[in-house]
Amino acid sequence: MTPASNSSSPGRPAVARRTVLGAAGAAAAAVAVTLPGPASAAPQTKPPRPLPGGGDLGPNVIVFDPSTPGIQSKLDEVFHQQESDEFGTGRYAFLFKPGTYNGLNARIGFHTSIAGLGLTPDETTINGDITVDAEWNGGKATSNFWRSAENLAVVPANATNRWAVSQAAPFRRMHVRGNLNLAPTGYGWASGGYIADSRIDGHVGPYSQQQWYTRDSVIGGWLNAVWNMVFSGVQGAPAQSFPNPPYTTLDTTPISREKPFLYLRGSEYRVFLPAKRTYARGVSWGNGTPRGTSLPLSRFYVAKPGVTAATLNRALAQGLHLLLTPGIYHLDETVRVRRPNTVVLGLGYATLIPNNGVTALKVADVDGVRLAGFLIDAGPVNSRTLLEVGEPGCSAGHSANPITVQDVFIRIGGTGPGKATTSMVINSRHTIIDHTWLWRADHGDGVGWETNRADYGVVVNGDDVLATGLFVEHFNKYDVQWNGQRGRTIFFQNEKAYDAPNQAAIQNGSVNGYAAYKVADSVTTHEAWGLGSYCNYNVDPTIVQHNGFVAPNTPGVKFHHLLVVSLGGNGQYEHVINDTGTPTSGTSTIPSNVVSYP
Predict the structure, then answer these.
(1) What is the CATH number for 212?
(2) Domain limits at 116?
(3) Domain total for the chain?
(4) Most buried among 42, 139, 185, 422, by the most CB within 10 A?
(5) What is the pLDDT of residue 496?
């Protein structure tokens, strides 16, 4: 292919269409000017010119309209690059303008997003498929991470669309006019995923999916369950029946506010901010125009890879929101969000990397901040934290306008050595964590018990925090430590660290191992539904884990539908929660369940 004049670097696909949005031009650099005056006067400088809002979206945001030639070849070109590039630097977003597209098969690889640019999914229809399969990995979808589909209607070519993914692969705001298959061809294993705000006219077939969470959606039916299938606010969900079959079904979701998204109003690009819903059930867009507000792109600093943290902070201080275009952002200082209602939105798995042990992103204890759609990679120098929401000890209430953390993923190792003592800390009250995967790598480069050391996944200190879709895996100590009052979790998926060298390495005082999910002894009210923890101690299969879950034994702390599993007998659990629940059994990969606790 002959590269376009605005193509990316060699080896990257050329841009199909590059669109200029908002105020044109790149960020202006500060210009120092010495003013005339008395010889004794100190030199004066003009303040830097304001950074412009808007701008083009860079070479790796590829925008199509129905008349664009060669759409399929462009989709194929990026897929062939990204299909098995699990830890590479490629980052891409395909955006489809409203209209109808015929005969496409959009295969989605690593670090790739596909989305429609309508205000509702039905404004952008693909007659064809949006496909994730697992040919690259021998038919197993257990490593099909970091990809997404959003805001599109799909009419599958053969009545069923295939979306065989595991963690960090959200399927949001989609309308499938047919069936949805969540397993790879041949039904090799897949390891859990997430659907939200979507309508599936036919049935959903998880088949070999081990666990799954579906929120605020409409489905025509659900075919089967393996270990842990959780639904909240889903019309058409199966009735609650855990553990046989293992369905956990809540009629509504207590609080939800959908992820911000880019859309077109005429020829103007804007970011839509969906309204908060309480006791939600079904999709947010079912009755026409969804509730919410929108912002013009001119109110966003459109960041490109290579921009400094200082410039991002300057844009935020100026009152701009941040749109992170696809690519890698190396940070030598913390990005600080201090203004209420600030939006930080990533496209195409834009990735923040703290280079020198700083925290990548800190949010002040203010109303309404929305973080969405980006990845944080730990750097080689240990960071105390990677993401902090609110300051330690903060106590302001945000129930009317919560902070949301959505499709924000954290990775320690895999791309090379990375370290972070704690990945995510939530200090602010009423924060909503809506789909996150915090992952200490168990494969890739820079992986080892001390090489990619990361003791804690998420620590929740704030009161009244809600997690919907919490995936946290492989941390050296507690994967989740919950210290705040009145916390709630709907769906939790966990694997303990594979690579513990021996029993002593995970010993927690006199207790065998650190639980996957610990509620502090001081907590008097907490509730959680649909939680699973799995061990695969493949370095030393004799390791014993006392339990998957630890919580104070008090009436206000309640758990519903828990399980632990030993994968092939690589390590064993003695109990499920506290000293309750039968041990896992030998080499049989069969869950040990607790229906309710206490």
Answers:
(1) 2.160.20.10
(2) 61-257
(3) 2
(4) 422
(5) 98
Query: Residue 289: its pLDDT value, please?
Result: 79
Residue 7: the pLDDT is 34
> Per the domain annotation, does 345 fall within a domain?
yes
Entry pTM: 0.92
pLDDT at 42: 58
Amino acid, single-letter form, for residue 561: H
Specify whether 239 is located in the same domain as 308. Answer: no
Distance (Å, whole) CA 219 – CA 208 = 19
Residue 541 tokens read as 């299969």
Start-to-end CA span in the chain (Å) = 63
pLDDT in tens, 226-246: 999 999 999 999 999 999 999
d(CA 4, CA 518) in angstroms, rounded, equals 53
Catalytic one among 83, 388, 473, 495? 495
Any bridge partners for residue 331, and if so which? Answer: 354
How long, in residues, is the chain?
598
Structural contact between residues 418 and 377, judged by C-beta atoms closer than 8 angstroms: yes
The count of C-alpha atoms lying within 13 angstroms of the C-alpha of 512, restricted to the half-sphere facing its C-beta, is 16
> How far apart, in whole angstroms, are the C-alpha atoms of residue 112 and residue 81?
11
Give strand pairing partners of 534: 495, 565
Alpha-carbon gap, residue 220 to 235, rounded angstroms: 8
Strand partners, 528: 489, 559
Give the three-class secondary structure for 503.
helix
